[in-house]
Amino acid sequence: MTITTFNPPVRTLMGPGPSDVHPRVLSALARPTIGHLDPSFSTMMDEVKTLLQYAFQTDNQLTFPVSAPGSAGMETCFANLLEAGDSVIVCQNGVFGGRMKENVERCGAIAIMVEDEWGKAVDPQKVEDALKAHPEASVLAFVHAETSTGALSDAKTLCALAHQYNCLTIVDAVTSLGGSELRVDDWGIDAIYSGTQKCLSCVPGLSPVSFSERAQERIKQRKERVQSWFLDLSLVMGYWGNDGGRSYHHTAPVNSLYALHESLLMLKEEGLENAWARHSMLHQALKAGLEAMGLSFIVPEGSRLAQLNAVTIPSNVDDAVVRKRLLHEYDLEIGAGLGSLAGKVWRIGLMGQSASASNVMFCLASLESVLNDMGATINTGVALPAAQKATFG
Ligand SMILES: *Cc1c(COP(=O)(O)O)cnc(C)c1O
To answer: Which atom of ligand 1 is nearest to the CA of 205?
Structure first.
């Protein structure tokens, strides 16, 4: 076997992440690697922190990217805030709420589950009932944007409820950051984690996190030290902290952080609210096209995510064959259903750079061509005009 340089195909990424990465971000990755304790690297790290505070809409000092993917940000929040025996109310309305439960239990804490049907938003009434019934609970954890179903939950209302019952909040914003309205300080979020490969359109492998004063206070009062050495915030902060002298904890992923710096800068240049509006406008266009074709959304209107569109698969076609043909014939990636929705839905992502008018039209045209060729029962010739009208009037 002769191994040669790996040249990946150029795809259009319209699945649940990673999303398309802009050439500006890719070229930032290719800049010279410098030492992670180099003074000029420290300056860039401070800028990353400031840009993240903007993206999260927070003044939290403890805001930085964990050097690992979104799942590590999740683990950082749970491992630092929980101790054995704590009770946590965990909302589950898809795959990622289930991972929160795993995290709680692995910390030796007790997960009190509030379950909602997959595809529905978290029901604040059920959460309030659980908070009332469990005065021993010290944390409420929920997923803001459930990527497995495309449902958006009302983070503002859920956080207000949690504080009314003296609970801290842990929020999964992996898919919402940069794509949906999110205001960490105004909404009173105590611990939040995200990922770089979704609406930030950066490369995978970093997890922005942020912790409120209340959360930091809770961490300081721990009786036991955090069981994970790598994710222990008291150690990581020696490196990311703003007390001047940076000390070695682990080698930061230097080039990936250049990429994050560039993608956050692009978000700042566009303006956070403009980015939210762009995602929502292009969701309307995609929706108009998909519905004209005859596909339907599984999430009720009003709690649909713009950046993750879960739609039904026509009954007479094979899910995997359609996705394979889109990939091979059009270099287009869309997502499969996860968990109980496997084989039942497609998940079409409009995340970050992937949320563009040209991607919407390309996706609709490719999907229509493949489905029509496979003899699916869909309406043809109507999707593109419907999307055109929704986008440009
Ligand atoms: C993608 C995702 C994660 C996990 O992020 P990774 O970077 O894949 O580890 C967690 N929660 C949600 C809601 C996600 O969409």
So the answer is: 7
- State in Å: Cα 134 to ligand 1 middle: 28
pLDDT reported for residue 243: 57
Ligand 1 within 6 A of CB of 147:
yes
Q: Is the CB of 93 under 6 A from ligand 1?
A: no
> Which of these, 162, 94, 103, 156, lies nearest to 127 by C-alpha position?
162
Spans of the chain below 70 pLDDT: 241-245
Give the pLDDT confidence of 231-259 residue by residue, as tens digits. 999 988 777 765 556 788 899 999 999 99
CA–CA separation, 198 vs 180, rounded Å? 12
* Placement of tokens 């698969």 in the chain: 313
Question: What are the pLDDT digits (tens) for 104-155?
Answer: 999 999 999 999 999 999 999 999 999 999 999 999 999 999 999 999 999 9
143 in contact with ligand 1, CB cutoff 6 A:
yes
**Pairing state between β 168-172 and 191-193:** parallel
pTM here is 0.97
E strand segments, the chain: 12-14, 62-66, 87-92, 110-115, 137-143, 145-146, 151-152, 168-172, 191-193, 207-211, 308-312, 332-336, 345-349
Q: Of 362, 368, 290, 356, whose CA–CA distance to 322 is shortest?
A: 368
Domains and CATH numbers, the chain: 23-268 (3.40.640.10), 272-392 (3.90.1150.10)
